[in-house]
Fold these 4 entries.
Entry 1:
Amino acid sequence: MARLHLDHAQPTFVPIAPRGFVPDQVLFGAPRVRPPFGGQRIARSAGLVTEVYEPGLVLPTPFATRIFDPTAPDNPAWIDAAVATAAPMASGAAVPLGRFLTEGLAVAVLQRDVIGTVPLIGAELTPAQRAAMEALDFAAQFIAIDQPTRVRRMIVTQRETGLHQGRPAPLHADRFMRAAIEALRFAVEPYEISAQIALRRREPLSDYVIANRLSFDSWLASMGVVTIDASAMCIGGRDLGLLDLAAAMAGARNVVIDDPNQAGLLGFCDPGTQVVEIAVDGWADPRIAAMCRIFALDWRVVLCAAPVYSISQPVPLGSKSLLRTEIDIAGVAMALELS
Amino acid sequence: MLDQTNRRSSITRFDAGMLTPVHGLAAWRTACFDPAAPDQVFHHQPARRLNTRPQDSVDGDDQGNDRGANYELAAVSSVSLAAALLDPGSMAIFSPALGLFARAIDTLPGPLQGSLQRLDAVATPVAGADINDLRHFLYQGLPSAVMLRGLLGAGLHVAGPALRPWQAELLAALGLDQGYYSMTGPTKFTRIIATDMTQKAAPSRFARGVIDRLRFRFGQDHERTRRLMVGTVPAEITDEAREFGFEAVDLAALTMAEQARLFASATAVIGPSGSALALVGFCDPGTAILELQPCGAAEDWTRVLCALFALDWYGLDTDAPDAVSPTGLDRTSLRTCLNHITSAK
């Protein structure tokens, strides 16, 4: 049982695409595509609750917290935290930067106002995560752990999304995700590497092979769009620091993005920035659209045609995935108003 | 009474663009705390164009609703001014080298009142000239102070006049009440750090960082189901709105925390243009805001705020010159409007 329970916000919904999925205004790409998200124009906004457990258990990777039962048999893999009170934080290489900023770090910023400065505990920070912590003056209070750790008093602020079909509903976007992003954004001066940036994964979408990926990359470069790989923190072949990334995003007026895990990074863009999401027909992940609404960005989506395939068909030789699709370059050009 | 600034005609003005820019967070921190550093500026955001086009036209006046759909958000910069003076009466900032920091104040202040004090500290003002205006304090003054404090740490003191209870409550909620320097007269600080967020304009993006923190701090105690009417709403609108489940609320007796929680519980809010809608920033994204705009008195402030905070803004132009005169709206169009904003939720 929690010793303390504070309700900061209750779960609700965020409307997305406020003017609707209007073809050639919001929706671009192959003809006869279905509206994304099954035509639903709302995304989930999580509730936020703070609870105090005495004691608690923190698992660094994958990140999880548990109420610790003192009567349970001792596990030799568990260690005791060096501090009596700590707030767990989802961190480490398994947590994409966009998620770290909008979930773990945002909660730390919010907690500081309510409960003051408390030690934070989580998996070893990546360099970008550490840079964010340093910029917001959290680095000195972070304790890295690499195995399950008992904390005498654990302060947990967590999102509650409710249940969807009997399972915890996925997290989309909520207003509290802005807390750390706005603070970090205030710390940087926009630097226009290019007014047009593509925030893309180095590898294709995990479930799909993008047949014309090289063509698309070449087209982007020819149009002056600079590609940033946020998971590798690099731009072209050069490494990128977190504040450099924030400054580059702040300087952009058009952003192409294909990875919902990095949607939080869009928050560095200034209001009114045009965001073009690349997804596949039948797309059901509204995180990028919801993040655009939360940060007052102008969201558009280009849908690639969904492939038709036989369920018994083997994976083609040399391919990692059965599903193949193509990015509609003309659609992206229209969405970016470059054509 | 001081005489060194009484000769108003001799006061020069300056803005952030006239100072030497510093680049990078480390350099900015040095510019703020190094006693030998010259007056400098750090640019946070250039002017940006924001599309504030409403969700739909509900007043039969499409042209009116599209008025000023593209709004230019002002640039945001911070300045570091050595040996500068802050006047708590006008909240004007004077630099001995440059004159009056013009972006924070529209008109030249009158003679400074009270004896000049000196404080060996680096300080930032808690708000600008409109310190006692709720909209200004909440969305411009407070964000300026909170963001700078977050960036520069506890070495930056927040200063201003003796605060009213609602102002003190907001500062306390953000942990800024301890160490607040309550000024009794014009004070010369080692250095003043200020932003041009305190100028008269619509709020910047950075207001969100502060309002969201206050919203988290104040919490939520009621399910998000309420429809609110705030401020002076014309009687014919009130009567119709009640049939749609709207309740008139009196905010005067509530603390800031209670007001914030009330707005957090709303799915729709109706109110006249101006400070009555100041607290809609505490509403959750997607809340419908119906702004009643008397003819000839339309302003962009609430509309821009709604765009920045992901609220669904609707405008209802009335023929009334003010909030209490008959609106001239016919019942059918009014019901269409109310049905529209409530069915959207």
Entry 2:
Amino acid sequence: MEIVFILEQVLNGLLIGANYLLIALGLSLIFSLGGVVNLAHGAFYAIGAYLTVALSPTIGFGGAIIVSPVLVACLGLVIERLLLSRFYRGDPILSLLLTFGLAMVAEQSLRMIFGAAPVPFSIPLWLRGQVFMGEFIYSKYRLIILAVAVLCVAGLWLLLKRTAFGRVVRAGVQNPDMVAALGISLRPYMTAVVMIAVGLAALAGTMMAPVTGVTPTMGAEILTFAFVVVVIGGLGSFWGVVCAAMIVGVVRGLAAYAFPPATEAAVYMLMVLVLLLRPRGLFGERIQRFE
Amino acid sequence: MTEFFRPTRRGLLAGGAAMLAMPSISYGQSDVVKIGHLTPRTGFLGPLGEFAVNAATLAAEQINAAGGINGRKVEMLFEDSVNPQTASAKAERYIQRDKVACIVGEINSASALAIGQVVQREKILFINTGANSDALRGSDCRRYMFHTESQNSMMVRTAGRAILEQGLVRGKKYYALTADYAFGHDLLRVAKRFLGENGATVAGEDLVPTELTDFSPFLLKLRQARPDVVICNLAGAQITNFLKQYSEYGLRFPIAGFGFDTALAWGAGTGNFLGTWPVVWHHLVDTPSAKAFTAAFRAKAGKPPENQGWSDYTAMRVIAQSMNELKSIDATKVVEHLEKGAKFDVLKPREGYFRARDHQLMMEMYAITALPADKVQNQFDIFSSSAAIPGPSESLEAIASTPEENVCNFPS
């Protein structure tokens, strides 16, 4: 019985991991290619959630799940072109300050527009319910989140591995100077990567809006975890981030089972452990320009 | 020439924090009475702080429209208290630079304690409008600190009476989830005493970190433990998250909680809001002054006030009424006046007064219970309310802590 229950917590942890995955992947992509630690990534997640709440009454949740990430990706386009693009080659501290400022502006704007109180938003009726597998219980909606996450991960992986676009991006991560020497400008690729990354964050926000409190601080709350996932997974490693997200979810589930007050702390302890044993993260690649 | 900043050592320290805030020019106290409002505007208590600010603003406007305090206009200053360290620094700045007549606000028990220490040293009145911890009225009490917010004992006995009537306590097993910080620990202690005294047993108990947003591991634990009732002693926006995910997992155990604010029920939304909870006041209270407040707040903020708004509004009215009756803004005189048992209209059926022993406002409370989704008319009226607790024939102290439970000695 106890073993079965622990197994149930492990599987549930994998579902929790899927929540972090979409955000962490984008964060990792922007950092790998642009060298920018995007502290505003959580803000795009929050904006995605609020757009979903605002748009759902008119276009439905099904519509919002498409439109909200697209709108946020367009916002990402504007911000990348006007602001981020000035900082790719500069001191990393500058882009850190810029994105930190952006995150604060976004949080305060959401507070001014929608108020500080949580905005009510529920799972649409057609997605509600639970799935029982023997003794185990799953929320139908979380399984859908998992499915969406798996689709996005597969899509992103194919994009990076199987397309000309992906080849340039991967080359850009490893050696931007060589890419430039071959006469390829990374700028449009960087714009596209930022749009994809913030779009994924907004998609995560959209998916999480019905099951978590929609408040201006939701972005800051999730961002820390996304960072931990990226650090554990290792820089530049696609599957590292995927594995780390799942491990973090499982560790949280097991900590909640064994010693609840350490539910959050367990994840940070895991990060410390990984950094001690493998400073580049679980699957981190050696990237010359960051050494 | 008005003096902008007097460079004292303490002032310089506080001034460091002041660089970030909008500089406000300090006039002498002669033409206005300044009241410093200090409460969390960001973080997990920020949603409640917004109601506090709106309500305090409304109260100041009404006080000024009625002639102000001793013929002088009230001028409100607002700050985000952030955390205990910042709260302490900002309280000091209010007193030393802005020369406020008193400080109103706070929600976080640890920050309220920090402000309490500052006002005790500076001999300035502070009315705590949102921190519930019994310790603030007991071991950590201060002579210059008063409480319009209810204490945890009052919250526990109010919701406790309601769930006792629903048959959820005697001989039942409970599973308690508690926010892992000062407020939660204090609440858990008081809750366990009540539940134990009334014959309930423990099926499970977890302390939950305040940053936690995903409760699914705990929902699985609840499902495995099969308690008769789930006791949710979480804090702030966490309650909203918990209620949403509890509905998501379709768990059916009855829920009750001992710490609550109506904004959290509104945030969870119709269908997700479940269970029985205590509130110090709610917008459906049917007395003339309560209805007038609700209407005025609605007109100003576009939504009904919640209990945090009530508390700040009431505190402001207590201050104005006391200072007008005394014809003085002297803090020590106001403290003595309140300790003598001055009565106030607190927007409930019976008048309230501050208990001299621990400075807690003695007043009625309400237990609210979620309405079934098909009975909900709009996004705000999503609960039904008990009659005022304690009942009309009981002493207002019936639900408050006893001298044995909570000892306050007012350190000098």
Entry 3:
Amino acid sequence: MLKKRIIPCLDIKKGRIVKGVHFINLQDAGDPVELAQAYSEQGADELVFLDITATVEKRKTLVDLVQKVARAINIPFTVGGGISSVEDVGILLDSGADKISINTAAVNNPNLIDALANRFGSQCVVLAVDTKQCNGSDIVFIDGGRTPTKKKTFEWMKEGTERGAGEILLTSMDHDGTKNGFAIELTRKASEIVNVPIIASGGAGKMEHFAHVFTEGKADAALAASVFHYGEIKISELKKYLSKQNIEVRL
Amino acid sequence: MKTGIIRYSAGNVYSVAMALERLNVSYIISDDPEHLHCCDRLIFPGVGEAASAMKDLDSKGLTSMIKQYNRPFLGICLGMQILCRETEENNAHGLAIFNPTVKKFQKSVKIPHIGWNTLQNPKSVLFSDISEEICVYFVHSYYAELSKETSSFCFYGRMFSASLEKDNYYGVQFHPEKSGRVGSKILQNFLEKT
């Protein structure tokens, strides 16, 4: 059976972890490589690195980080944040990233999705979709959630997968940061509409939330940041819990 | 012992190289058939599209080297599919070392098949000394059918070959270099036990 995946997300700025990390046994809580190793040992199935650096030296630091991560861990990882060209992606994949995620650049230039899928294959193209309810409809936001677009979320996900995205990272901005649970209806509808795996994101607070998003939400994977960073949920315990709920996970 | 990693247009060479470094194994990375032919073991990674990968292998003179190679040879993911007879992916011909045809998953399942899945009936030296359930990382849209050469299978909407084995040739559909401790053990078995 294909397992449901648990994916911690690491926010990176200038090669360092942004959010505070309350892990014991970490010598340097700001070191992404050390945190990645710790998550990998706890049983994370994949990692996502989101680079929020907005400087010109960005690419060099990121490539350097990706190489170090690829050297250190033996599970797959995705890199996202400000990626906007086929060239950027080529360098990151050559440096050991398994997948890249695109968001703003794909909305501004949807042909980028086709170009990446044709050049590198759909399996490494993750379309990140930040969505928020506005006047009763689900709208796509870009620029890290700052800018609304005219794109309707479900139509955009359909278009993105038709263009070649192999996976969707769906973040509910309405749920993000609330710790009240994932957006179940939104995730379920997405999972039924598009024929690629859905990574649900936004709202994780308790272990039950993960169970809900896998069962009722039909998600293939669930992503979270703070509950893992601050040690509120341990991945190893989360997986044991899910297994007891008869949800297939890798133990 | 000298291990070679085949470099061509569709290789995830870096990840495989890093996996070997974690095992403290020295290696060379090359696209030169003569250099590669001298290696004691070859690893043939692959991520990407089959037809263009085949074209690139042909242009580098690697197809005949791979067919003539008589020491342990491991194809990973697309590398395994290229060792098969033919593939539905742009109707490419393979190297016909393994008998199965490679087909696309039907739309009754989500495509690609991404994530960790369990191996069933693993019977290969590659899987020796692993006591736990063998759960490994897959990412692919095409699969090799079951055959006499199947050395483990996997279920995703249907049964398919998770690994193939014939003479000195080994193929794995999953990514041992990304499959945690178990994957690392599988690579180690290839390096030490074949």
Entry 4:
Amino acid sequence: MTSTAPIIDARGVWKRFGGLAVLKGVDLSVAERELVFVIGPSGSGKSTFLRCLNRLEEPDDGSIQVDGIELLSPKTDINAARRRIGMVFQSFNLYPHMTARQNVMLALRKVLGQNKDQAATVAARALDRVGLAERMDHYPAQLSGGQQQRVAIARAIALEPRVMLFDEPTSALDPELVGGVLNVMRELRQDGMTMVVVSHEMAFAKAAADRVVFMADGQKLEEGPPAQIFEAPQHERTRAFIRQIDRH
Amino acid sequence: MEDFLFAFLNWDIVTQAWPILWRGFAYTLALSAMTVPLGLAGGVALALLATSGPWWVRLLAAGWTDFFRAIPPLVLLVFLYAGLPFAGIDVGAWGAVALGFLLNTGSYYGEVLRAGIESVPRGQMEAARSTGLTRGQALAHVVLPQAVRNVLPDLVSNTLEVVKLTSIASVVALPELLFQARQAQNATYNATPIVAAAIAYFLLLWPLVRLVSRLENRAMAGR
Amino acid sequence: MDGLNNFIFSFFNLKVMAQYLPLVAQGLALTVVLALLIVVCGLALGLLLAVLRSFGIRPLNWLIIFTVDVFRALPPLVIIVLLFFGLPAAGMSVSGFAATWLSLTLVLMAFAEEIFWAGITAVPKGQWEAARSTGLTFLQTLRMVVLPQALRITIPPLTNRTIAITKGTALGSVVGVAEILGAAQSAMSFSANPSPLTLGAIAYLVLFVPVVALGRWIETRFAWKR
């Protein structure tokens, strides 16, 4: 882990909205095959930071390298870079006018330039991986929230990204649907996918994360293995946050 | 009653005027086939500028749209047809109609499509961009199809208005249905050709009116 | 430079403009009167038809729907021409002003009826049932419970439609009404210069830009509650 270069290397990332600084120089490096969990109170900037990692938010300052490519350089083809960075959103953001399979196929055809048959095969395989082979021809409105989120994961992994970003992937789901999505994420991890996850699923973090990062007020306050962060947090803010989470 | 029938529903006159009216009807169809795509193209361009340009482009697009929605289309047409030649620019009747409809109808379609694009959640664009699609690809494949669906009643209703509006081309002597009916009326001293033209318009557009009405009721009930 | 001078001489000829300003101003006044008459009569008739339709008398409703469809399908200019050039053939003659007023009133009536009716049907059935269960009559329920809710959601589409139809007053120029366009056109032929037309366009902008902006504002203002 120490010998290879990190696959994500973000340094001094600043982001302001108007006069308000939401990120105040955040650093994060993620090694290949690592699963990093980012936690923190709402308004801590964790989602904004995640969205900077594929430049959906434009950072005001800092540098972000993903797989050796500097994202913030004007010379970088951001669209080519993004296909190596999969993203899963809290609200799924499936295209409602396309079936599950068409959702997955769109970028395969338009970004990777695959023909229709190729894309259909790759999409079918990706949907099979998330356990939705039978629902391929359903429209999003005909799927449960959990199934929709799994389609969204399939849409991202079909492009064979080097990194997957998850922005609160289960917080819009009814409790009984969360398990299916977490199972898919667990399998991805077993297959060696590098993942950065912003989420409140603490049990999942304890079981699956390699490292937990705690953010507050636009800064990274502490990080470490889950056991350390959850059992023996160093920082007072972290302790307060963990106590509050545990009460639920 | 007989006088009325003689003046308004005179079958002899209908058969006499039939060839002229038929040519006018075909001309109206051709005019519509030209003006609807022209207006749509202008509308898409305006809507894209009004939703994704920098702030001054948006402002300009909004001003442009309001300007051409405030000017009655007939005023625009007369200006292009009868005014411009004074400055040495003669675009002719066809050119005046094409340009006038591009400006007027384009503004209306633009306003409808702008509302449609704004009704598509931002996450759709973000999801598409996160998979590596360019802004143009995301607009074409993800945002615009949803935008069009969301404002379909308004789009169809606007199209109905465009077809009706082609009747003002009669003012610049393009031989469409209304113009031909007026010619026939002048030749026969009888109102029947105009009544026949009205019936033809009604038969052509009634299905569209029914469709709009159904779509609008569904949209209103869904609120 | 010559081209620019020519352009200014043609379209912004202040001398011609000053000369024909009174004529175009009279046109503006006539347009305002015509527009107000159309708006008041058209909206009132449209509301009347929508209320009549809510009684649910089958044959009457068919008649209303058909009438509305006719005036939504026919181009306003066709109706104006039909009334102005057609009626004299039956021994009845109407002025250009009356033909324009009547035609556009009927068109606005048709569109307004459709919008009012859609608004009435959009009010949930439970509102009717709740009001009737407290002993209100049909008309009381319609007037005090249903219409206030219906009118609110009809305001944005109604505003836009009213603006579009009121702009149709320019069609009156075809049948000799000296409203803005008519006045500007005759001034143009007197002076052999299109500057009066520019003046006319400005008059329309003065009249309608505020209304269009108001419509846009109303649309956003009433949209957020959807």
